[in-house]
Amino acid sequence: MDLTFMFLKHRRTFYLVFFSALVFGVIYAFFVPHKYEYVTLVGLAEKEPGTFIEKPGTVIATLENRWLPEYQALYQASHNQSLPFDIHFVNPESTALIRMSSEASVEQSEEVRRAHAHLVNELEQSQSAEVSVVKGALESQIESLSQTVGMLESYNDAGEAIAGTVEKRLSLEATLESIQPMEVLAESRQSSEPIGPARTLIVVLAGMLGLMGGVFSAFFMEFARVVRARVSES
């Protein structure tokens, strides 16, 4: 009975806190823009299946510590503000993929696409250069082995040496043929659903917080009243 009386006595405080929290939750849920995840997938260049031209960890380190900071500096210089979203890099386990992801609103989607495209371009140039170096080294070795075979053919007892050299050359030629360049599998692909809590859930949580806050405020107001009364009596 005392609790009911106390609640009724401070019901205005309860309603004020409850409806303030609820209104704030509704405003936040319906006026703050939804964010989506934008994903770019890149398949790294491989010398042969499972053997990378450049290790994924090295690629991610270069993206995080060189190319992304450079792009952020360019964006800051041209827009007088920081890049309004983050870009994260992951190498999914046991794959040759680099996953590039950002969370942004629809209004920022073009900026996300430009940023991802810039980083993909930097990575593509680097991977192409690495592939060219590896191919050049293999071609030089193949040419050297071909010359060696030509020299050995002038000897009568060099059959075993010729066979070994030819086998090695064929192996290098197979490696050369198996080199796979970098491939862009998806670029700034937008998630089908917004990320984060749904609007209904936000409103429900705001209502629950308002309810708890309102009850606490009513108790606090009654506690403060009792304290003031006792101080006045003393």
Report what the structure shows.
- The protein is α+β, with helices and mostly antiparallel strands and 234 residues long.
- It has a domain at 1-32 and 197-226.
- Helices cover 65% and strands 15% of the residues.
- It has 6 helices and 6 strands, in the order H-H-E-E-E-H-E-E-H-H-E-H.
- The protein has a 4-stranded antiparallel sheet with strand order 4-5-1-6, with helices on one face. A two-stranded antiparallel ribbon has the order 2-3.
- Strand 4 (88-90) and strand 5 (97-105) form a beta hairpin.
- Helix 4 runs antiparallel to helix 5 (159-178).
- The two termini are 27 Å apart.
- The mean pLDDT is 86.
Secondary-structure-derived class: alpha+beta
Spans with pLDDT under 50 lasting ≥5 residues?
Answer: none
DSSP summary: helix tally: 6
Helix content: 55-70%
End-to-end Cα distance:
27 Å
Beta-strand fraction estimate: 5-15%
